[in-house]
Amino acid sequence: MSAGFTLLSPVKEEELRLSFGHTEEIGDAINPVEIFAPTIAHFKKLAVGTYFWFIPDAVKWVIHAAGGSLEKMMPIKESEFVQHSPEILFRNTHPEHIAPMLAFSNYWIQYFSDLPDERKPHVKATIYIRLLNARNIYSWFMTQYVDCIIDNTGKIIFGLTLVTDVSHIKKEGTAMMSILDTYNDSCQQFLCVDGKSVQGNQISLPVLSKREIEVLYYLAAGHSSKQIAAELKIAIKTIDNHRQSMLRKTKTKSTGELVAYGINMGFI
């Protein structure tokens, strides 16, 4: 698969909220924590680093719930996060990355909403930005829009977002977003640059099978071939073959390099 960078224009927080398209509040019949519970339980097994998750309420524009290691990762108390505006996250974002984060999120909402229903389960967006860690040092975090609940008009009501500390893998670079689409084996990469152009932006990405990407997730989480084989109920040799295939396709020399490649290129 191949991908080039697409430039996005900055947006403001109020514009991001409007992109959800809601003007009226919905009832309290939906329990998003209950709906997302199976996915949240999966995080512990496949997270590539220390993580926290949160569920934004797109109608009320507050954080409905949160969990994981929020207070160990960032200088934010759960009590000042849950049932408050997500603006607190913006205050703890590197100043150079606030505009890109808003632009990426705005684009993703519109992109996802416009997809046919059969395509939506096959796409995922990953954003790489610097946030303040618990020591008040800007570090690289990976933000993934994992799942969402939509209304009968196709608008997002609740979302499930996973934030992972990847500073042990990613040390430099610029804020960016990738959208991986396993429906048509495509990957789009995005930058937000106001008034500037990006040169030499064509990137060739290898085609990884769905099973290889699944194995890559487990490798990133630190699982051995034996553990992965037990989880996926396939032979250890098959796991090793998938790993060798990915090393060859990505031209990486070790599992560590492969995992770093997977994160930087949006496969994870």
Description:
With 268 residues, this protein is α+β, with helices and mostly antiparallel strands. It has 2 domains: 2-204, PAS domain (Beta-Lactamase, 2-Layer Sandwich); 210-264, Winged helix-like DNA-binding domain superfamily/Winged helix DNA-binding domain (Arc Repressor Mutant, subunit A). The chain is 34% helix and 25% strand. It is built from 9 helices and 9 strands. The protein has a 9-stranded mixed β-sheet with strand order 3-2-6-5-4-7-8-1-9, sandwiched between helices. Strand 2 and strand 3 (62-68) form a beta hairpin. Helix 6 (210-220) crosses helix 8, helix 6 (210-220) packs across helix 9 (255-264) and helix 7 (225-232) crosses helix 8 (236-250). The longest helix is centred in the middle third of the chain and has 17 residues, at 98-114. The chain is globular. The two termini are 16 Å apart. Residues 195-202 have low confidence and may be disordered.
Present the secondary structure layout:
Elements: E1 2-7, H1 13-18, H2 32-46, E2 51-57, E3 62-68, H3 70-73, H4 87-91, H5 98-114, E4 123-132, E5 138-150, E6 156-165, E7 176-181, E8 186-191, E9 202-204, H6 210-220, H7 225-232, H8 236-250, H9 255-264
Parallel strand pairs: 1-8
Antiparallel strand pairs: 1-9, 2-3, 2-6, 4-5, 4-7, 5-6, 7-8
Helix pairs in contact: 6-8, 6-9, 7-8
**CATH architectural group of the largest domain:** 2-Layer Sandwich
Rg, rounded, reads 18 Å
- Judged by helices, strands and strand pairing, the structural class is alpha+beta
Largest sheet report: 9 strands, mixed
Question: In a nutshell, what does this entry contain?
Answer:
The protein is α+β, with helices and mostly antiparallel strands.
